[in-house]
Design goal:
Elements lengths: L1 E9 L7 E4 L4 E7 L4 E8 L12 E9 L5 H9 L7 E7 L5 E6 L16 E3 L6 E3 L5 E6 L25 H17 L1 H9 L8 E6 L4 H11 L6 H15 L5 H13 L3 H9 L21 H15 L15 H4 L4 H16 L1 H7 L8 H19 L2 H30 L4 E4 L2 E7 L5 H18 L11 E5 L5 H17 L10 E7 L7 H19 L5 E4 L4 E4 L6 E7 L3 H4 L7 E6 L5 E4 L13 H8 L9 H22 L9 H12 L4 H13 L5 H20 L1
Parallel strand pairs: 4-8, 5-18, 5-19, 7-9, 10-15, 15-18
Antiparallel strand pairs: 1-2, 1-6, 3-4, 6-7, 11-13, 11-14, 12-13, 16-17, 19-20
């Protein structure tokens, strides 16, 4: 089954109904009568060649036109995406020569479950067999490499970067890395590389401790005027608490606690103190302004995390606020101990009562038990004291910090477990992960999940950079390479989902300018690559059909799905691979409405056509085939030459060509790469001085170039 034609009755792009033929075995025309009967005329497509695009690909079509012609909006109609209400009729060709019709000509007021319903009655030629379109037989997959939140309304089952606009950039990046690695690890990627030898790939992932500047941490609280503990208020609350409790059995302890509050450091001092801890000192002349020198992976990770934990150490003052001795952190002998002290510090500064009661339980290795204690503790206090809002706030904050520090500990533990893969590369400690390892998918899923939770924990910090690590690969990929890798990994990712969409017998791949950023060589290969490799991507799927006898799904007689591809493109190299009947040409008229031009127009060219013709006709490039800047410079030179010729033919006394202006336009002419224009303008320039010097120089240069080429043959 393939989409053969769409009749669009109403759309804001058009001032009248439009018909789109995609180049299948038949071409369709539609005529709506006064009685709301839509008569369908069908004729053979003389340009159709069965099996033209290879096994597994029924049809590939292109949508082209000037910017703003509405290609994406038409793709949205084809996709029948979420909130798509266009009144249209879709004609599908079945493999057995019959047709299926999806009549969406209604206004969406009737049968919601089955779409928009129909307003027009279709009338096909006598004897023609057609059925109603079964949505379960075909899955439409819209793909775009552009980050555009509007894509969310397209309703595609693919995991696009824009499919969840609320996701953070870091999450999108990690999801793309995960998809790319899983695809490159899969056996099918080897098949793709055999077909497409220069397909971009890499074999190693790098995890690198983030290079962080000390000034960025200091600057946070200098700019925001935060970080200096309110010692007077803290001391007042502490004394008032002790007066309420009335426990004076150890007055020396109380006085020392008050003294510690008075002597306590601010955030900036705390940062300095941890940076000067022996295990974290970075006294290098070259890197002393950074948190670490990059040579000890685990220590680098530790100081990054500790620095974030310190600037995270600002809390609203509560009536139960207590004080925690920062020296305990500075005297810790392990990173786990440091995390435990930060947890205790955070809890004390929210609720001294809780800390005093459960002090022996406040350790991250008792995290799950501690969370249960928190929930039961504040439930009990809320019932006893009736202060629901206050206790709920305390519970939420303590719970939040327990979970945050637990995830930090889990992330650190993962790095410890991966420490066998730490290497020194370019004087920097990094973890190298071979993407061919058997557990790569599970490893990355866990790592990225935990790391995203740690980033979420620090997300409120007033810093531009909140990363603990950088993730990279061993190959520097260009934008175009990343784009094509993302295209394949996204479709492969879809084939591994548990969605019912993957059980269809037919797939319509809708690619919205997927070739953006590709090198011209890749654009030239794009259609050949798609037709050769996409069937391999989908080969792992098993098409399912509904069995009316058993009322269950069973395997289709066809062992692999059928693919159809529709692409929107601006690129003439891509277009030259399409038979003319497979190209949908869009143009805007004088009142800014889009029209679908018939591909039978004699001047339209595509398959194997000259690139210049493609640019001039298929892409509606007006006023020449060069850039506007070059065009303007050449036109300026032509105007000057014509003016000077008139002056020379009718000279005034003392007339002479200005030498500086002459040399300027001579320089312009010499850098023109089109030989016909270059030589003609050189001839006009020489005539101003009754010479042939410039022509001779340029012709001599051309002869040397041709002789060089001749010698290379």
């Amino acid at each position: 089954m393939k989409l053969a034609a769409v009749y669009i009755h109403e759309h804001f792009l058009f001032d009248r109904p439009q018909t789109i033929n995609f180049g299948g075995a038949h071409q369709f025309e539609f005529n709506l009568s006064m009685e709301n009967v839509l008569r369908v005329s069908i004729k053979k497509n003389q340009g159709f060649v069965e099996g033209f695009f290879g096994e597994g690909i029924s049809l590939i079509s292109a949508l082209v036109g000037a910017n703003g012609a509405g290609k994406t909006n038409i793709l949205k109609v084809i996709n029948n995406g979420f909130q798509e209400n266009t009144r249209a009729v879709f004609i599908y060709e079945n493999a057995d020569g019959t047709f299926a019709v999806d009549n969406r000509s209604g206004r969406g007021v009737g049968d919601v479950k089955h779409g928009k319903g129909s307003e027009f009655t279709l009338e096909f030629p006598l004897g023609l067999v057609y059925t109603n379109f079964d949505t379960q037989k075909l899955t439409k997959l819209y793909y775009s490499p552009v980050f555009d939140p509007v894509i969310d309304t397209f309703g595609t089952p693919l995991r696009l970067n824009s499919s969840s606009p609320e996701r953070k950039i870091d999450e999108l990046f990690m999801d793309n890395v995960r998809k790319d690695v899983v695809f490159l690890h899969a056996e099918v990627s080897k098949t793709v590389k055999e077909i497409y030898p220069d397909f971009p790939s890499y074999d190693t992932l790098y995890i690198v401790p983030k290079i962080l500047h000390k000034r960025d941490f200091r600057k946070v609280y200098i700019d925001t005027n935060l970080g200096n503990p309110q010692k007077t208020e803290t001391l007042t609350y502490t004394i008032e608490r002790d007066l309420r409790v009335g426990d004076y059995r150890d007055p020396e302890h109380l006085l020392r606690e008050y003294l510690n509050i008075i002597k306590s450091s601010n955030i900036t001092d705390a940062l300095k103190e941890v940076w000067e801890m022996p295990q974290y000192q970075n006294n290098s002349e070259q890197t002393g302004h950074l948190l670490h020198d990059g040579k000890d992976f685990l220590k680098n990770i530790e100081i990054n995390i500790i620095s974030f934990l310190i600037i995270n150490d600002t809390f609203p003052i509560t009536r139960f606020r207590g004080y925690y001795d920062f020296e305990k952190i500075l005297k810790s002998t392990s990173f786990d101990e440091i995390l435990d002290h930060f947890l205790a510090k955070y809890i004390v500064q929210f609720d001294q009562r809780f800390f005093d009661q459960y002090q022996d339980k406040i350790r991250l290795d008792k995290g799950d038990e501690l969370i249960s204690i928190v929930m039961s503790h504040y439930t009990m206090y809320a019932k006893t004291l009736g202060d629901l809002d206050s206790d709920s706030m305390l519970e939420r904050n303590i719970h939040h910090n327990i979970n945050g520090l637990l995830n930090i500990k889990r992330l650190y533990q993962m790095f410890v477990e991966l420490s066998d893969y730490i290497v020194i590369d370019d004087d920097q400690a990094i973890i190298k992960i071979d993407i061919e390892r058997e557990d790569i998918e599970e490893l990355l899923a866990v790592l990225f999940d935990i790391y995203s939770k740690v980033q979420e924990y620090f997300s409120h910090l007033p810093m531009t950079i909140k990363d603990i690590i950088d993730i990279d690969c061993n190959v520097h990929l260009s934008y175009g390479e990343k784009s094509i890798l993302n295209l394949y990994s996204t479709f492969y990712d879809f084939t591994r989902t548990n969605s019912h969409y993957r059980e269809a017998e037919n797939f319509l791949l809708i690619l919205d300018e997927a070739d953006l950023g590709y090198h011209p060589l890749w654009k030239r290969k794009f259609i050949h690559a798609l037709s050769s490799t996409m069937p391999a991507i989908f080969s792992g799927l098993t098409p399912m059909v509904f069995d009316p006898n058993t009322k269950t799904k069973k395997k289709s007689a066809k062992g692999y799905p059928n693919l159809q591809i529709v692409i929107a493109t601006h690129d003439p190299l891509t277009l030259s691979d399409f038979p003319n009947s497979n190209v949908v040409y869009l143009s805007k008229n004088e009142i800014n409405y889009t029209h679908v031009l018939q591909s039978s127009f004699n001047y339209m060219k595509s398959f194997g056509a000259n690139i210049t013709d493609l640019l001039a006709h298929s892409f509606f490039v007006e006023d020449g085939l060069i850039g506007d800047f070059a065009k303007q410079r050449i036109e300026d030179t032509i105007l000057w030459l014509n003016d000077e010729k008139k002056k020379k033919d009718n000279p005034e006394p003392g007339y002479a060509v200005d030498e500086n202006t002459f040399r300027y336009h001579e320089s312009i002419i010499k850098i023109i790469d089109e030989p016909v224009i270059r030589i003609k303008l050189a001839q006009m320039l020489d005539e101003l001085k009754d010479q042939k010097n410039v022509q001779r120089e340029l012709i001599q240069r051309e002869m040397e170039l041709l002789n060089k080429k001749l010698g290379e043959l």
